[in-house]
Specification:
InterPro entries: SND2/TMEM208
Number of helices: 2
Number of domains: 1
Structural class: mainly alpha
Order of helices and strands: HHEE
Number of strands: 2
Membrane topology: Multi-pass membrane protein
Helix content: 40-55%
Keywords: Endoplasmic reticulum, Membrane, Transmembrane, Transmembrane helix
Radius of gyration: 19 Å
Subcellular location: Endoplasmic reticulum membrane
Distance between the termini: 13 Å
Organism: Drosophila mojavensis (Fruit fly)
Strand content: under 5%
Shape: elongated
Length: about 100
């Protein structure tokens, strides 16, 4: 077990949050594609193609897409007309957030 840090935990800047959110979204996008493509190929190669199979594959792909779009919506940064960062969006990497599982 890692030793506890003494003192106050440092805060992240808005630009750092935006950059980390981009890498987190790319990671989850790649993970979703990496599990969806083999599942679709395996389903069509091994199992009989029925309406139920196609429906369940479409449902699972829609679920993966909706989860990704929700995370992208939550982390969307807002910029001013001059290009200055106004709001960094929600931090996808915050402790206890959706991108981290904390064991109690």
């Amino acid at each position: 077990m890692a030793p506890q840090q003494k003192g106050k935990q440092g805060t992240k800047g808005a630009k750092q949050i935006v950059e980390e959110n981009k890498t987190t979204l790319a990671f989850y996008r790649n993970m979703a594609i990496g599990c969806a493509v083999p599942a679709v190929l395996l389903s069509f190669l091994v199992f009989e193609i029925t309406k139920l199979t196609v429906f369940m594959l479409a449902l699972s792909l829609l679920t993966l897409g909706a989860a990704y779009q929700f995370m992208a919506f939550m982390s969307r940064a807002k910029y001013s007309e001059t290009g200055a960062l106004l709001d960094s969006g929600n931090d996808l990497n915050m402790e206890g957030g959706i991108a981290e599982y904390v064991l109690a």
